[in-house]
Amino acid sequence: MSPVSRFLSLALLALVGCERGPAPGHAVVDFRHSREPGGTPVAAWKDDRLTAEELKQRLEEMSPALRERYQTLEQKREYVEGQARFELLVQEALARGLQNDPEVVASTKRALVSRLMRAQLDEARPPVSEAEVAAYYESHKEDYVRPEQVRLSHIFLAAPRTDAARGETARVKAEKVLAEAKALPPRDFTAFGRLARTHSEEPRTQPLDGDLRYRSLEELGQDFGPEVAEAARGLLASGPGALSGVVSTEAGLHVLQLTGHQTALNLKLEDMREQISNRLSQEKRTRAWAELLAGLERRSGFSVDAATLSRVHVDVSTPMRPASGPPPGTIPAPTPAAPPSSASVERP
Description:
This protein is an alpha+beta fold. It is built from 12 helices and 9 strands.
């Protein structure tokens, strides 16, 4: 079980205590429709009522088109009677003890945990300071400011320019490999990768099907020679899948395929302040939720008997048995916001 699932299960277990009676300082659940004094009743029943003020608020929360249904006295009476009948059915269910029905208890648990999550996280959003936003921006600056980058795959044949004989043999092979690459579908990166794995002599990238990952043109020039950087620049006009000719460098010969392109980014702190603040707020909420669940674990003395658990047999061959009630629900943990991403074309 994942830590989040374990924590959520613990939260549910902690709530089971309400089935044994109210905790000290907590009242029993009040199922009455009206809990506040005052107001003018438009309908009343045993220990409960519906007020004109509440009815007016309910109607104002409807769309104007829906309000058209409740213009006459009879239409309003029908609405009020429907509300009252619902509450009377709740009272009858309580009188029959259905609040302890497993299905009702499971639904109530889900509602309680959902409400707890909103109270803990959504209604008490942690503040994020300007200093935190600025520090995050500086520590992740490569996500916001970076030069144009290209992604290439290559087939490299070692042929130092000082070795003329080796160079001639390598060029013949390179032209043959280039012809094979041109016969492939233009965006079949996997097929080009197989050629690279078979023919490339560059030990760092040959096991990666020739993939050079994303690099700026400057980095390409530094790592593989200015000729490779210039060839990559020329491929950009044709887009992913484009092939170079045989590119000669000091170290040898390259056959290049463009597999991706990312435009330059220059996002200022002012441009990203709101998005970063939202991300940090979400991260704080995630930590707060985890801390709440960890505290519940500590205070409840939660433990797992691994020996007993290991003896619980899970038979995958028997048909599913009808459930006695719905399983407890799970409430998803807050999900951190994704960092901003630039538009790019990626190889699969």
